[in-house]
């Protein structure tokens, strides 16, 4: 029987540009109900001795492999790495992405493209030329991440649909990218803004990373699911009404197919959809009027 485990995969500590110690950061996540956490410092492998595992969430080793190609930041998170990864020194963005991803894989980890819209660094053009990354941050809690795009440029969700529609089987994450743990306001990069809920047999590094790689999780900025069934025959989604403060009827559950086209939309707390072959993939994006969102992983109509 799988259980649901909450985690954040992107945080900084005083080992890079965060304003709190690794112990303080891990303590914040523990006391706020998180089951697992990745301390992803820039070009630094932050390891805490977690023998006292009541004090902190399960810690998954990670690093934000951080390079600058000319003026363009190329930030790739590595999860489950066993050694420090050196960032690429290439001035070519695509080359730097490839080298950072390769370094992560060689260190035993899985790679995630961070905040593609931060400084509008990574568009579909670059991301489509690179392979071997498993995840992309569809939401990043840092104020500069531009996760929802602007008038001229697409949201990361839209870029994700384009990647999916062109055959890239990438999965979507929501993360905090927290840097500030002492002063809380919208301009600070505070914890608690974006997380994932992983369906896993148990709370261990291998089990969590395996479920994540299988897409057995959802990403959220404030909405939680109750019952959920996601397969080729049928998709059933139930929003957990006790964990949502907004009026039930104003939540919209969107079923999105190939090319980011809305296949069906239901207003309310539950929805069903029967996928068809021509959908190619279906993913669910839930939008609440208070601005919170939830993204499921895509269900593919073919292996
Ligand atoms: Zn970054
Ligand atoms: Zn970061």
Any idea how many domains?
Answer: 2
Low-confidence stretches: none
CATH superfamily of the largest domain: Metal-dependent hydrolases
Separate helix tally:
5
Quaternary state of this entry equals single chain
- Radius of gyration, CA atoms, in whole angstroms: 18 Å
**Ligands in the structure?**
zinc ion
Percent range of helical residues: 10-25%
In CATH, the topology of the largest domain is named TIM Barrel
Structural class: alpha+beta
Strand content: 25-35%
**What is the CATH class name of the largest domain?**
Alpha Beta
Order of helices and strands: EHEEEEHEHEHEEHEEEEEEEEE
Shape field: globular
Distance between the termini: 24 Å
- CATH architecture of the largest domain, by name, is Alpha-Beta Barrel
| Largest beta-sheet details | 10 strands, mixed
Question: How many distinct beta strands?
Answer: 18
Mean pLDDT: 95
Q: Brief overview, please?
A:
The chain has 303 residues and is an alpha+beta fold.
């Amino acid at each position: 029987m799988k259980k649901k485990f909450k985690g954040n995969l992107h945080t900084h500590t005083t080992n890079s540009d965060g304003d709190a110690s690794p112990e303080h950061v891990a303590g914040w996540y523990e006391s706020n109900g998180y089951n697992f956490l990745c301390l992803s410092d820039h070009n630094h492998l932050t390891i805490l001795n977690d023998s006292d595992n009541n004090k902190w969430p399960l810690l998954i080793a990670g690093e934000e492999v951080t390079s600058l190609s000319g003026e363009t930041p190329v930030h790739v998170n590595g999860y489950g790495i066993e050694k420090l990864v050196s960032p690429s020194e290439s001035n070519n963005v695509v080359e730097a992405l490839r080298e950072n991803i390769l370094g992560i894989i060689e260190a035993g980890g899985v790679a995630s493209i961070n905040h593609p819209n931060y400084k509008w660094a990574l568009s579909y053009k670059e991301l489509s030329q690179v392979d071997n990354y498993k995840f992309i941050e569809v939401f990043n809690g840092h104020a500069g991440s531009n996760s929802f795009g602007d008038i001229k440029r697409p949201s990361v969700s839209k870029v994700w649909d384009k990647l999916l529609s062109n055959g890239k089987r990438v999965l979507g994450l929501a993360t905090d990218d927290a840097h500030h743990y002492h002063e809380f306001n919208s301009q600070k990069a505070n914890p608690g803004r974006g997380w994932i809920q992983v369906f896993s047999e148990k709370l261990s590094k291998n089990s969590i990373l395996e479920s994540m790689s299988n897409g057995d999780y959802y990403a959220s900025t404030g909405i939680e699911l109750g019952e959920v069934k996601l397969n080729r025959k049928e998709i059933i989604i139930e929003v957990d009404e006790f964990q949502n403060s907004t009026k039930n009827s104003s939540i919209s559950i969107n079923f999105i197919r190939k090319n980011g086209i809305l296949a069906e939309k239901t207003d309310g707390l539950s929805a069903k959809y029967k996928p068809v072959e021509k959908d190619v993939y279906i993913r669910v994006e839930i939008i609440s009027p208070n601005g919170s969102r939830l993204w499921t992983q895509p269900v593919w109509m073919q292996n």
